[in-house]
Write a structure and sequence with these properties.
Blueprint: H1 30-35, H2 38-41, H3 52-60, E1 108-109, E2 132-134, E3 142-144, H4 158-161, H5 173-185, E4 193-194, H6 215-220, E5 236-244, E6 250-257, E7 264-272, E8 278-285, E9 291-299, E10 313-319, E11 322-329, E12 335-339, H7 342-351, E13 357-359, H8 365-391, E14 395-403, E15 414-419, E16 424-430, E17 436-442, E18 446-453, E19 460-467, E20 473-475, E21 479-480, E22 489-501, E23 508-510, E24 515-520, E25 529-533, E26 540-545, E27 548-555, E28 562-568, E29 575-580, E30 589-594, E31 602-610, E32 613-617, E33 629-632, E34 641-645, E35 653-660, H9 661-664, E36 680-685, E37 688-694, E38 703-710, E39 713-721
Parallel strand pairs: 3-26, 4-5, 12-13, 14-20, 14-21, 22-29
Antiparallel strand pairs: 1-39, 2-3, 5-6, 6-7, 7-8, 8-9, 9-10, 10-11, 11-12, 14-17, 15-16, 15-18, 18-19, 22-23, 22-26, 24-25, 24-27, 27-28, 30-34, 30-36, 31-32, 31-35, 33-34, 35-38, 36-37, 38-39
Helix pairs in contact: 3-5
């Protein structure tokens, strides 16, 4: 165990660091692991107590009943992905651990720029007096006074604590939104549930001459173009969460909606099992919402794909509400095909001549009974899924942590949610005993802001929280409650090139920032500047900051503008290096990963699908056939790791993941090091910074599945896995 403040090695039961004297807060605890499992992370109930006013709003807004609707048909399997092996050498675990951040950038179209524009402080009406002292021009140094101090006592927060929640008229848009959010966060509000196995639909009459129609399956997966269907990468995407009524397990749903007729042609269900693994069920529906194909399998972590012939799992091929073929593929490659009639059996023989085909009518009574039972179960599962999921409400959970200066969770801090457009207060929640908060909001396109308040500390704001229907979770970077006042501390800031090494190869090339602006709060890109500086001849900029949480903006000619979070505290690090991507060219995308000292090696993985072809960029294959490139692979902490999509196409599908190689290589899949590494991923297009993602904090796991790009749109995924023993794509192509 190492001190997260000074990096000194600690004794196993140490309560204080003997080197720097700071109190020790362990990162990995069994209770935290239990608390942060997906099931508890996203239940629809906010952490902490609901205020009386919000309870009133919840009561006023009665939950809406779900209204089901019909389902659809599905198709079969696909081609085998590329193979290959490569192994990375073992690495030593480094000396110290940095605190983590969390947060999420929302799905946006490639080509839309975040930030910029006219300066305006989103909390100007609630902020207290700010001041800044600038040193002599050209000195490169500046001082920022406490941004929230004012009044004779220097507290400045009395007015904030008096801010009251006002429930608007229920007939107004504001009042309706307030009541909706209150209802979603009421402890009495039950999570949306799905009865997957309920028998509500009768099996159709088998037609001895019917064989399986592959139109939906092959068109969605890019093999063929059939009238009425489109490639899934061109579909409109929605994400929803439901609770399995039978098991209580949480299920994530990804819905692919045909933009031409509004029918969901594919729904992927990812159920989090008690064992820690996943059960994935992929449903395909035709234009009449009838099931055509169902593929079900178990896996450690989900990588978007489809039923290639040698992929383990069970396939169910439907037509006219009857099961035409039941296919099972085992890990060892054993395949079983049982066809319902001679026509379907003949189709299978032509498609899979090497495999034995079993005919339903020739099997014994037990086998026919098993076939009939699976037919009813999977048909009803398909219809129940379509009807319930399509009528379920889109929800997004905004969550994060609040810590004090020693890294301890702060309980009962006020968490105030505002809508950005008019700074109207929508909801007030509280942090729990671990300092965690979660506020559930409707999954509709909207921007929010948070203000966290806890006497006697300085409050802290989080700006620009974007939410839409494609997003299940919006993780925020941690908030730190720091004492008011206090002496200003000198900080040395550097900027490095995220793409090019220096001449000695010992680090990244130095970038000379023309302007470095500092603003109070998190993700504050256009608010009031409290400090500004320029780099000197050695590439260092000096600023003085009082205790607080700040957004640092770094601008340099020839580089994309960088925005990052800096926590200023008397006992914290006083030197920070940031990394800037060179200006992204037309039709390109740059993905930059940075993190702290621990773990030593985080790896970037980019998956690309173009039609029926796929590729994987990683440390064992740094360039793929599509021109995508892992330009920088850092193995000794901090990063950067930079991946460049050099010929971006809106017709292609991309997915980006980060893996904790340091712990994965030792099968330490329950490690907290990735979660507490402060890992941040920034995505740049030729229009500038397009999205920023922060790793979820205080969770065991080694695989962070971050975002995908389909139809030219960046969509957050934000799944986090602590099981990776069988799904080891991070070690092999």
């Amino acid at each position: 165990m190492y001190c997260r403040y000074c990096g000194a090695e600690l004794k196993p039961e140490a309560k204080f660091c003997t080197s720097c004297g700071m109190k020790i807060q362990p990162f990995g605890k069994a209770e935290e692991a239990k608390a942060e499992q997906p099931k508890t992370e996203q239940t629809g109930v906010a952490a902490g107590a609901t205020t009386a006013v919000n309870a009133e709003a919840a009561k006023a807004a009665a939950p809406k009943a779900e209204q089901p609707e019909p389902a659809a048909k599905m198709p079969p399997e696909e081609k085998k992905p590329e193979g290959g092996k490569s192994k990375k050498g073992l690495l030593l675990i480094p000396l110290f651990l940095l605190l983590a951040g969390l947060g999420v950038g929302v799905g946006i179209f490639i080509g839309s720029r975040q930030g910029g524009g006219k300066e305006s402080d989103p909390f100007a009406k609630r902020e207290t007096r700010e001041s800044s002292e600038m040193s002599a021009e050209g000195s490169g140094e500046s001082t920022a006074a406490d941004a929230s101090e004012s009044g004779a006592d220097g507290d400045g927060e009395a007015a904030e604590r008096e801010e009251k929640f006002v429930l608007a008229d229920e007939n107004t848009e504001l009042g309706a939104l307030q009541r909706s959010i209150a209802t979603l966060n009421s402890e009495a509000a039950a999570g949306q549930r799905i009865a997957i196995n309920e028998i509500k639909h009768s099996v159709g009459v088998r037609n001895p001459g019917e064989s399986w129609n592959s139109d939906v399956f092959y068109t969605l997966e890019g093999y063929e173009n059939r009238p009425g269907y489109v490639n899934k990468n061109l579909c409109r995407l929605e994400q929803k969460q439901l609770i399995n009524a039978d098991t209580g397990n949480l299920i994530d749903y990804t819905v692919y909606i045909n933009p031409n007729d509004g029918v969901a042609n594919k729904i992927v269900a990812i159920e989090y099992l008690v064992s820690g693994g996943l059960q994935v069920t992929e449903y395909y529906y035709d234009a009449n919402r009838m099931p055509r194909f169902v593929y079900q399998y178990l896996i450690d972590n989900y990588v978007a794909g489809y039923a290639v012939p040698d992929k383990a799992g069970e396939r169910f091929l439907f037509g006219s509400d009857t099961l035409l073929t039941w296919r099972a593929v085992r890990d060892g490659g054993f395949k079983w095909n049982c066809a319902a009639n001679a026509s379907e059996a003949e189709r299978l023989r032509k498609s899979w001549p090497a495999n034995t085909i079993f005919l339903y009518q020739n099997e014994n009574a037990d086998m026919r009974r098993a076939f009939d039972e699976r037919e009813s179960i999977m048909l009803n599962a398909a219809y129940n899924t379509y009807e319930t999921v399509m009528n379920a409400q889109n929800l997004t959970g905004i969550s994060g942590y609040a810590y004090d200066e020693q890294g301890q969770g702060v309980e009962n801090a006020r968490v105030l949610l505002y809508r950005s457009e008019d700074r109207k207060l929508l909801y007030e929640g509280k942090t729990d005993a671990d300092g965690r908060y979660r506020i559930v909001v409707p999954g509709e396109s909207r921007q929010y802001e948070l203000r966290l308040v806890k006497a006697p500390y300085r409050s802290c704001e989080i700006y620009g929280i974007n939410v839409d229907s494609e997003q299940l979770a919006a993780y925020q970077t941690p908030v730190y409650f720091l004492p008011r006042g206090g002496a200003a501390t000198d900080y040395r800031l550097r900027l490095g090139d995220a793409l090019h090494y220096n001449e000695s190869g010992s680090g990244m090339r130095t970038v000379f920032a023309s302007v470095i602006n500092v603003r109070a709060g998190i993700n504050n890109r256009t608010g009031r500047i409290v400090s500004t500086a320029q780099t000197d001849g050695s590439g260092v900029a000096n600023v003085k900051l009082r205790p607080g949480v700040y957004t640092v903006e770094l601008v340099a000619d020839g580089y994309e503008t960088v925005y990052d979070t800096l926590v200023a505290r008397s006992d914290g690090e006083t030197e920070r290096e940031f990394f800037a991507a060179p200006t992204v060219g037309s039709g390109q995308v740059s993905i930059v990963l940075t993190w702290g000292a621990v773990p030593a090696d985080l790896d970037s993985h980019l998956f690309t699908q173009r039609g029926a072809e796929s590729s994987h960029v990683w440390f064992g294959g740094k360039v793929d056939s599509f021109g995508n490139d892992l330009d920088v692979d850092d193995v000794s902490s901090y990063g950067p790791e930079t991946v460049t999509i050099k010929q971006f196409s809106a017709q292609d599908y991309y997915k980006y993941c980060v893996v904790d190689f340091t712990n994965s290589v030792y099968n330490n899949f329950q490690s907290y090091e990735l979660s507490n590494s402060g890992a941040t991923v920034q995505v740049y297009t030729d229009q500038g910074l397009a999205a920023t993602y922060h790793v979820p904090t205080n969770r065991p796991g080694v695989v962070w599945e971050i975002f995908e790009i389909r139809n030219g749109r960046i969509t957050p995924i934000q799944r986090y896995y602590n099981y990776a023993s069988t799904q080891d794509w991070w070690m092999h192509d």
